[in-house]
Amino acid sequence: MLGPLRFTALRSNLPGISAKVLTERLEKLEVANVLAKRVLPPPSGAQVYELTEWGYAAEPLIQELGRWAAKSTQHNPMLPLSPASFMLSLRTMLDPAKAGDRHTRVGFRFPTVGFVAELAEGRMPVERAEPESCDTIFVAPSGPALAAMFYVGVSAEDMGVRIEGDLAIADKFMTLFELPEKIG
């Protein structure tokens, strides 16, 4: 959902899956027109997998499943999740009414990947990119560290997170995300 990835990156984000099983699943998704393979231009020349337009259209379904799962009394927002999964959770749990007409550019830097979220008009596209020219940047050791801050209220210091840039913007930004009330 956040842009093309190489096979090795996909595999590292899916612990426990063998290369053979991942290859088979990617082939099936390609045949079903959910994703496509392409080769990046030189000098990289690497092969990447990316969602098709139809594949990206599944995001609302994935978000609804995420909101449904978060309503479970067994849901624990501090369980392991990848940085990309955390970013998708933010897109899912964003409250557009709270966001209102705020406009801010927020960066997220993890040990192996960076993201930039551009909040505007109650929407928040996210791209995989090195955070630059951001109003504030969250530098975190993991997805669960930020989930604990955003969804549970644990302090940045307790989670080993550093906030660069405007702290007031970071504090306001964190208030825009809320897990749904537990029902099951």
TrEMBL record:
PROSITE patterns: HTH_HXLR. Keywords: DNA-binding, Transcription, Transcription regulation. The keyword DNA-binding applies. The keyword Thylakoid does not apply. SUPFAM superfamilies: Winged helix' DNA-binding domain. InterPro entries: HTH_HxlR (IPR002577), WH-like_DNA-bd_sf (IPR036388), WH_DNA-bd_sf (IPR036390). This is Winged helix-turn-helix transcriptional regulator. Residues 1-77 form the HTH hxlR-type domain. Pfam families: HxlR (PF01638).
